[in-house]
Every structure is written in C-alpha cells, then in structure tokens.
Design goal:
Shape: globular
Radius of gyration: 18 Å
Oligomer: single chain
Strand content: 15-25%
Structural class: alpha+beta
Order of helices and strands: HEEHEEEEEHHHHH
Number of strands: 7
Amino acid sequence: MSMEFWDKLKDVPDWAKKPIKAGRLKGKTDINPQWRLKIMTEVFGVCGIGWKYKVDKKWIEEGSDGTRCAFVDVLVYIKAEDGWSDPIPGTGGSMLVAKETNGLYTSDEAFKMATTDALSVAFKQIGVGAEVYYGSDVIKTDSQEPINDQQVADIYSLQTEKNLSDADFYKRLERKFKAEKVESLTFDQGNALIKALGNIE
C-alpha cells in the first residue's frame, strides 16, 4: 500500500504540462492546476468526501521597493479505508504587490494563487506530478539555476515556523552560503537551506 497512491498520482499527461519559456523559471514545466484537482478526484473521490483541505493561515510579507507577498498555509486530508489521514501541510505564495515597468501593481488574485500554490506543495508529498519533479528531462537541476519563487516562499515560511530572528536567519545564510539574501541562492542551495531549516529542533 505504501506506493499505491504515489504510483497512481505521479504521471502527468502531456496536455497538462506547459513549458515555461521566460523568466526565472525558464526551461521548467508548469503543471495545469486543474489536472491536479482532477487526479485527486479520480484517485480519492469528490473534494470534501474523498479528500479535502483547510486553509490554516493567511499572511502578507513585506518585500523590497514596496512589493508585498501573500502567503497561505493549507492542510490537505485524504480518506483511506481506515478514515481521514493526518494533515498534509503545504505553504504557497504569490505576489500581492509587484514592481513592474510602470510602477507597482496590486493583484486581486494573490491569495487565490497562493492557495493553488500551497495545494500543489501538499499534493507533491503524496506523489501528484512526481515524474515532472524528479524524473523528467524537462526539469533543469543544474547547480547554477537560480532559486525559484516556491523555494523562497518555503524558506521564509520555515524561518517563521522555527522562530528564527532576522539576525539569526541571515547569520546562518552568510555562514552556510556566503550570501546576503535568499534570492541570490541557486536552486540547489535553496533546497539545501530548506533541508537545513527543516532539521532545526
């Protein structure tokens, strides 16, 4: 049973995969969020009956130059033969106030997009779209690839979760990676930092 759900959830059909052609995530694959909901429904049943989720927390973080990020924590539950699972956590983020060419832009869909992002993080833990994340040649894992927005969101969420002050957090960042800010890390360094923060007691 340990891999039963994973094997049913891991393969993403071609129609649900879209190459990202620009920006910091260029060369990666975007998975259609509606497909994630579809596969969850196929495997577990209708949302609210076979699987469900709860928005556990919403908050806003101040960025640089007037930018602001919206973050959402969700808890996903799936129903198996012996009842509801323990909560499966996911944290997602999206720009609420972004800096664009013509100035600051405020999105009225930031929390909706952050929720979708958080669900994708929770779903990943039970195997949804796993072939894209670990086995596809579409995903770049070159050590010089820049950190992505989801990693940044996860790192700041872990800083809050572990009750690290800014002074302690940036001291660790400087000592471990010789970096002054999270956004300057590479993809692999971002994963290493997430792992290191997660291991803090």
